[in-house]
Specification:
Length: 325
């Protein structure tokens, strides 16, 4: 006999989901007549598909503009190092492969269901809670990218040193050893930054980001996950405040971080490059030579992720370069 054991947290999550479902049923009952309202079992089926198969509908700049249920792409498995991306052309969802495949076989095509700029534990937890599976993708099985979760910057060679909570700081491959005061300052800055990132979930505050970055200075490698997240928040709020020089200061190191966490051929990496291109033109309108290389890199990725025929490429990306010329 199979006995399924759910821990208390899992039961709590299921109860929460069921409560939410009952609330939706209540609202539907109020607004729809009995004739058109599916019965409770059918409704539960629809709700289940909503939980598992809903995609955020994104505009060209990868901002969510709605939610839709797309059943066909749900045959595509998840990987934290995907070889395909889901992009939208209006409401049409397109799955585009970003790496060469020997032949078209859907069982070897993977997209990511979640935000990839997160630690292994965070990703695994989110996938388990939202999609009910344990991720065993190559990225979750290796430390190649996740070694940057906590990465100090060696004061001698400036290379990253992977550090883990509760462990002693290992020596750098160059031979340098970091003393206990470095380690104490590192964890204090890490705790502070993680706390602030949690508080800033919905709104990024530039002064808070600046404070985090100052505390991290000379201690954190730029690719360290926490620093990447703070740089991302700082870039975002500098753009909101139209502080273009600051946006470039935070945006440039962020390019490397995006390439690490999201991948070279990811729509978000392309959008970041496009934003930097636009900002550079605002800062130095008479010299577009530095900006152009970011545009070219972005356009190449968008050709792959959205396609040359997509509305976004034709209307938004190509028009930018016409404006420059
Ligand atoms: Zn994974
Ligand atoms: Zn070193």
């Amino acid at each position: 006999m199979n006995v399924f054991l759910l821990d208390r947290k899992e039961i709590k999550e299921d109860v929460k989901r069921m409560e939410y479902f009952l609330t939706i049923c209540g609202v539907l009952n109020e607004y729809l007549s009995d004739e058109i309202l599916p019965n409770a079992v059918e409704l539960l089926g629809i709700y289940g598909r909503m939980c598992i198969n809903s995609f955020n509908i994104l505009n060209g700049e990868m901002q969510a503009i709605g939610t839709g249920i797309y059943l066909a792409p749900s045959v595509i498995d998840h990987s934290c190092s995907p070889n395909a991306v889901a992009t939208f052309d209006g409401f049409k969802l397109r799955i585009r492969v970003t790496q060469d495949l020997p032949k078209l076989d859907w069982s070897f095509i993977y997209i990511s269901y979640i935000d990839l700029m997160n630690s292994k534990n965070h990703r695994k937890k989110e996938l388990k809670e939202r999609y009910y599976f344990d991720c065993n993708c190559p990225r979750c099985g290796s430390d190649e990218i996740d070694c940057y979760h906590y990465a100090a910057r060696c004061p001698s060679c400036r290379n990253p040193i992977t550090v883990r909570r509760g462990d002693k700081f290992p020596p750098c491959s160059c031979g340098s050893r970091l003393d206990s005061s470095f380690s104490k300052q590192f964890w204090s800055a890490a705790d502070f930054s993680e706390q602030q990132l949690l508080l800033m979930q919905d709104t990024n505050y530039l002064d808070v980001c600046k404070l985090c970055l100052t505390k991290q200075e000379d201690l954190f490698h730029d690719l360290c996950l926490i620093r990447s997240k703070v740089l991302d928040a700082a870039f975002d709020s500098a753009v909101q405040l139209q502080l273009w020089e600051s946006a470039i200061q935070y945006g440039l190191p962020l390019i490397h971080a995006y390439k690490l966490w999201y991948g070279n051929e990811h729509p978000l990496t392309a959008i970041l490059l496009l934003k930097i291109f636009k900002i550079m033109l605002l800062v130095s309108p008479n010299d577009d030579s530095a900006a152009l290389k970011y545009y070219q890199e972005a356009a190449k990725i968008i050709e792959l992720t959205h396609g040359k025929g997509s509305m976004f490429y034709q209307q938004d990306v190509k028009s930018l370069i016409r404006d420059v010329k």
